[in-house]
Write a structure and sequence with these properties.
Immunoglobulin-like; 12 strands
């Protein structure tokens, strides 16, 4: 499987989702559609063409994550020693947002994963990611939203944390990561309670 993209269908039967493919995800593929985990239909071939500039940094559009509208596009190359701010809007009933950096399989990094969470207020959230030097490397960035202790995965993409880049809303001096806002576990899902709910 090249990639998968969860999409929530609204009560009126409509849905929307922006998908982005990494530089290495090119070629002819088969597109499969599943509804409520059941196979619905497929189409092939779907042609994914390489970008004109393969070294160009990819920026995730504001609607990349399902049911999340970011205030600013999110770069996939993040600065170590700086604080990247991710903000946006979600459904009014969402009370928590989780972003997790997960190490790719086989990667030699200081941690298997590191997570950040923040509360949403009236459908709005602002989450700072203090990316200290030990977090330099390749990661998968995952975003989930939560209602109480029930979390829904909203999408993921490969990111790089290194010394030279720009953030979505500028760079600031790195801050210490609050212990209450991080955990070395996998992203919560609707079938798994978050650590702070136990």
């Amino acid at each position: 499987m090249l990639a998968s993209f969860p999409i929530t269908v609204d009560d009126d039967g409509r849905f929307t989702r922006t998908v982005v493919f990494d530089h290495g995800q090119t070629g002819d593929v088969e597109l499969e559609v599943f509804v409520d985990s059941d196979f619905s239909s497929d189409f092939e071939p779907l042609h994914i063409l390489p970008a004109a500039e393969l070294s160009a940094a990819i920026t995730l559009p504001r609607r990349f994550f399902d049911k999340v509208l970011l205030d600013f596009p999110l770069p996939t190359r993040l600065a170590s020693g700086s604080k990247t701010t991710v903000s946006g809007s979600v459904d009014a009933d969402v009370d928590q947002i989780v972003i997790e950096l997960v190490a790719p399989q086989g990667a030699e990094l200081a941690r298997e994963s590191v997570g950040f969470r923040v509360s949403a207020d009236a459908g709005m959230f602002t989450l700072d990611l203090p990316l200290e030097a030990p977090l330099e490397g390749d990661w998968e960035l995952r975003l989930s939203t939560g209602v109480g202790c029930d979390f829904t995965f909203r999408g993921s993409f490969a990111v790089v944390v290194d010394e030279f880049t720009t953030t979505a809303v500028g760079e600031q001096k790195a801050a210490a990561i609050p212990k209450a806002s991080t955990w070395p576990h996998r992203t919560p899902t609707p079938s798994m309670q978050a650590p702070w709910c136990q």
